[in-house]
Amino acid sequence: MAPRPSITGFDPKKYAAAAASSKGDPWSRYEAWRYTGPFTRWNRFKGTFPGLGIATVAFAGYLVAEQMFFKDEDHHDEGHHTITT
């Protein structure tokens, strides 16, 4: 007796053979666009923190300017008088 054909047309043996090797993947060319062009891993990552590079350079410039031009003279004790009796 021959096995009955599936009503739906689904053949589990063909499915298992296609899943075993990527060569037999019918969707591979439809999935390839996800990893090329503007969707590469680097292009997806570089838009994660917009403005971080500019902010880092601006903050470093601020720290350098503060160290060079805004030196604090030692006036730490002014205004902090303690009254003792």
From TrEMBL:
Keyword Chloroplast attached: no
Main location (coarse class): mitochondrion
Keywords: Electron transport, Membrane, Mitochondrion, Mitochondrion inner membrane, Respiratory chain, Transmembrane, Transmembrane helix, Transport
Pfam families found in the cross-reference section: NDUF_B12 (PF08122)
Family: Belongs to the complex I NDUFB3 subunit family.
Any one Gene Ontology cellular component term annotated for this protein: mitochondrial inner membrane
Transmembrane segments: 47-65
Organism: Massariosphaeria phaeospora
Subcellular location per the Swiss-Prot or TrEMBL entry: Mitochondrion inner membrane
Keyword Signal carried by entry: no
Membrane disposition: Single-pass membrane protein
Role this protein plays: Accessory subunit of the mitochondrial membrane respiratory chain NADH dehydrogenase (Complex I), that is believed not to be involved in catalysis. Complex I functions in the transfer of electrons from NADH to the respiratory chain. The immediate electron acceptor for the enzyme is believed to be ubiquinone.
GO biological process, one term: electron transport chain
Name of this chain's protein: NADH-ubiquinone oxidoreductase B12 subunit family-domain-containing protein
